[in-house]
Amino acid sequence: MPHMDDTPLPRALASALLAALADTPVVCLIGPRQCGKTTLVRILGPNYGYVTLDDADALALARSDPNGFMAALPDPVIIDEIQRAPELLRAIKLSVDRDRRPGRFLLTGSANLLLLPKLGDSLAGRMTVLELHPLTAAEMNRAPGGFLAAWLAGRLQPSLVTDRAIPDPSGLAARIVAGGFPEPRLRTPARARAWHRDYLRALLERDVQDVARVKEPRDLSRLLTLLALRTGELLNLTTLGNELDLRRETVEHHLTACERLYLVRRLQPWHRHEAKRLIKTPKVHFIDTGLAASLASLSIEDWPARRDRFGHLLESYVLQELMAQAGWTDPDLSFWHYRDKDQVEVDVVLTRGTRTWGVEVKATATPSAADASGLRRLAAQCGDDFAGGILFHAGVNTFALGDPRFLAVPLAKLWEM
User: What is the pTM of this model?
Assistant: First the structure.
């Protein structure tokens, strides 16, 4: 189960952040609010000056006189919540062009700068951007977080465990409902749900206007509640608009704002040019399953009766774990989903160049070769480019699913390796 004291947990991204500070003038750590960015940068940069743009006076000066603000800063410096004053990025660029020493500016942002128009290009060639995710299960478990690297390197091998009981499903449900934000994991389930509600309220009242013009934040809140009930499903903007009584364009605008604030992500469909029968609709996934569970009013006790909802949350949970691990092991990976017109699907597809891997997620403790039908279809589409597939399950054994390229792997490997 997750770590439950208030000691800051080591973050696996720390080494990548230190490496960037050693050779790049500006390093920007982006990720959701309250995921641990400020804690991490202040631990790694103890000799840095510090200013946060959540401070009203600092923000006012940064917006009205960016050059004057920059002239008053120590060097090196941490600037927290840079998305609140994008005007600063030009002033930082001018400063870096005069002095390109590495590690001068350590920025954090609670919006995805890479998705904000023009903002992400302001420091091209001068800035490294790293994404910090909510805590992974491996980080909570103080494990190395090496599952993804081991799998992609072909180091996973069949392994039968005869003296270990099948895990209690409620333990898996507890991980899903807890999510990865550091603060709520220290609370009781009821208090954690209250934290999630307060978190979303603060985000919509304070941060949303930094990333998009939203006239009615309440509409955005209603959209998020619907998406929490449909995480892991194909995205249908028209249906969402009809249910919310909003124009399709408005739903698209609100969804983009939610992506920029690290609330949800669109997982695009994988396809090859010659594959005519593939569905080209993205899936939508909540980034933190704890927040999704709170919005969907799901608790640990709902596991037996609402297994279908937990199945979709589990898919989002695994995707988030893999994407977070990719951040410190293989940033060149891209993530997709696969679905064809026969409704054969693979939950997560990973690619690096033309090399392709597939991931299926099942809540069962007893998977069979029949559960690998999607992986077989994906492998056939890829031909020689297919590098392997796994089917995550709730049991304890690792074994081949009728083909040595397809392995059934316990979900616990995500946090035990």
Answer: 0.94
